[in-house]
UniProtKB/TrEMBL annotation, chain A:
CDD domains: Sigma70_r4. The lineage of its organism: Bacteria, Bacillati, Actinomycetota, Actinomycetes, Streptosporangiales. It comes from Sinosporangium album. Residues 116-166 form the RNA polymerase sigma factor 70 region 4 type domain. One of its GO terms (molecular function) is sigma factor activity. This is RNA polymerase sigma-70 factor, ECF subfamily. The keyword Transcription regulation applies. Belongs to the sigma-70 factor family. ECF subfamily.
Automatic annotation (TrEMBL), chain B:
Residues 211-225 have a biased composition (Basic and acidic residues). This is Uncharacterized protein. It comes from the Bacteria. The lineage of its organism: Bacteria, Bacillati, Actinomycetota, Actinomycetes, Streptosporangiales. Residues 184-225 are annotated as: Disordered.
Length: 181, 225
C-alpha cells in the first residue's frame, strides 16, 4: 500500500521523521520562522509525492531527504511571500512562543554544521549535494545516491572529488587566515 | 495553544491529506493543484464514482472504518453514527455511496470553519444530531430527499484532539446548494443568549449537541432540535 492510501502509515511516517526533518532544515537556515515554513512545506511535498512511496520498500530516509532537498533549494529561489501564497499550510502560523524558543534552540545546536555547509558553498552543485547529505545529514552513500536520483558509483566519485576539493579549500583558507593574523 | 508546533503540523498534514483523498487527488498521481474549480469538478467525480470508492474502502478498511457507520433504512433515510472523529474523507466517500454528497471537517477546539460555505439550500424538515447512548461520538439521521441533487451536507465538527471519541464541543451543520467553499479554520463563535446553552434529551438517546445553522438572514445562530 502506498503512503497516500494509509492515513495511519502517513502519521507514523511523520512522527518517525519530524525531528530529522527539522534538524535537516535548521542545518540550512537560521531563521526560526523560515525553518517552520520549510518544515511544513516539506511535509506538504511529502503529500504531493506520497503516491510514489511504498512504506518498507527502499530507504524512506533517502526518499524523504530527496524531497526535503528540493523544497529547501526551491525556497532559496522563491520569496517568502510567493511561497506562502502557494502553500495551504504555512508553518510559521502554527508556531507559538514556546515553539519559537525551541526552534531557536535547534538552530543554535546546529550552528557548527551550518558553518560547515558554508565551506562547501563553492563546490560544484553535484558534488556539494552528495557531500552535504553524507557529511551534514549522515546519510550513507547509497541513501544519498537514492535521494539525489543518481547511481551509487556516481555518488561515490562525486563524494571523493568533493572531499579532495575541500581539503584544498581548507588549506588555502588556513593559509589566508594565517596571513591575516 | 496547548500543543506543540509538531502536533499542529501533523494535524494540518492529516487534514490536508483527508481533503486531497476526498478530492481524489491522492489517488491520481501527478501534481496537486489547489484551484477551486478543480475542487468542484473532482467533487462531482467522487460522488459519481461512489460505488467504486466504497468497495475500495471496504478492502482497505479493516480497523479504519469503525470510526463511523452509515446505514440506509428501507424508507430511504440514512442514519449516520460517528464513533470517532477521524477519517472524515472516508466518511464522505461512504455517504457518497448512499447518494449523499458531504463535506466534513473535523477541527480541534476552539476552531470551526468559516460560517459561509455556499448558497444555503432550503430544506424541509429538521435534522437531529444527538450524542450516542454510550456518550461517545454523535449520530444523526438524514431523511429521504432531504439533501437533494446538487446539494451537499456540510459539517464542521469541533472536537477535542486529545480524545476523538468525545462528543464534539460544537457541530455546525448546513446544506449547501451548488459549490461548497473549502473550510477555512476560524475561531469558534460562542452562542450568545437564547435557549442554546441548555441541555436537552433527544428521544432518550443522550443529550443533544448544539447545532449551528445559518438562517435566512445569513447569521450564524445556535439552536437545538
Amino acid at each position: 500500500m502506498r503512503l497516500n492510501e494509509d492515513p495511519v502509515a502517513l502519521e507514523a511516517f511523520y512522527r518517525r521523521h519530524v525531528d530529522d526533518v527539522m534538524r535537516f532544515v535548521v542545518r540550512r537556515v537560521s531563521d526560526p520562522h523560515v525553518a517552520a515554513d520549510l518544515t511544513s512545506d516539506i511535509f506538504m511535498a511529502v503529500l504531493d509525492s506520497a503516491h510514489t512511496y511504498v512504506p518498507g520498500r527502499g530507504s524512506e530516509v533517502a526518499w524523504l531527504y530527496g524531497i526535503a532537498r528540493n523544497v529547501v533549494s526551491g525556497h532559496h529561489r522563491r520569496s517568502v511571500l510567493e511561497a506562502q501564497a502557494n502553500s495551504r499550510v504555512v508553518g510559521r502560523r502554527l508556531m507559538d512562543d514556546d515553539d519559537l524558543v525551541r526552534m531557536e534552540e535547534r538552530i543554535d545546536a546546529e550552528r557548527r554544521l551550518r558553518d560547515a555547509r558554508q565551506v562547501m558553498a563553492d563546490l560544484p552543485e553535484g558534488e556539494r549535494a552528495v557531500l552535504e547529505l553524507v557529511a551534514i545529514d549522515q546519510l550513507t552513500v547509497t541513501e544519498a545516491a537514492s535521494a539525489l536520483g543518481i547511481r551509487k558509483v556516481t555518488a561515490r566519485v562525486r563524494l571523493h572529488r568533493a572531499r579532495r576539493a575541500l581539503e584544498k579549500v581548507a588549506s588555502s583558507a588556513a593559509t589566508y587566515m594565517g596571513a591575516e593574523a | 495553544m496547548n500543543t506543540s508546533f509538531e502536533e499542529r503540523l501533523i494535524k494540518a498534514v492529516m487534514d490536508e491529506h483527508a481533503r486531497r483523498t476526498a478530492e481524489g487527488a491522492a489517488v491520481v498521481p501527478g501534481p496537486v493543484r489547489h484551484s477551486r474549480t478543480r475542487r468542484i469538478a473532482t467533487r462531482a467525480a467522487v460522488v459519481s464514482g461512489a460505488a467504486a470508492t466504497t468497495v475500495a474502502l471496504m478492502l482497505i478498511g479493516g480497523g479504519t472504518t469503525s470510526a463511523y457507520a452509515v446505514n440506509k433504512s428501507a424508507d430511504g433515510s440514512v442514519r449516520v453514527t460517528i464513533n470517532e472523529f477521524r477519517d472524515a474523507a472516508e466518511l464522505e466517500a461512504e455517504l457518497a455511496g448512499v447518494g449523499i454528497a458531504a463535506e466534513i471537517d473535523y477541527l480541534p477546539v476552539p476552531q470551526t470553519c468559516q460560517p459561509y460555505r455556499g448558497e444555503r439550500a432550503d430544506t424541509g424538515g429538521q435534522m437531529k444530531v444527538g450524542t450516542r447512548e454510550d456518550g461517545k461520538g454523535i449520530e444523526f439521521e438524514i431523511g429521504k430527499g432531504q439533501i437533494g441533487k446538487g446539494e451537499t451536507l456540510v459539517l464542521a465538527i469541533s472536537v477535542d484532539p486529545a480524545d476523538l471519541t468525545k462528543p464534539p464541543a460544537a457541530t455546525a451543520m448546513q446544506i449547501v446548494r451548488g459549490p461548497v467553499a473549502p473550510c477555512e479554520a476560524t475561531a469558534l463563535p460562542f452562542p450568545s443568549g437564547g435557549p442554546a446553552g441548555e441541555s436537552k434529551r433527544d428521544g432518550g438517546s443522550g443529550p443533544t449537541t448544539d447545532i449551528q445553522r445559518r438562517d435566512q438572514h445569513g447569521e450564524t445562530r445556535s439552536q437545538q432540535d
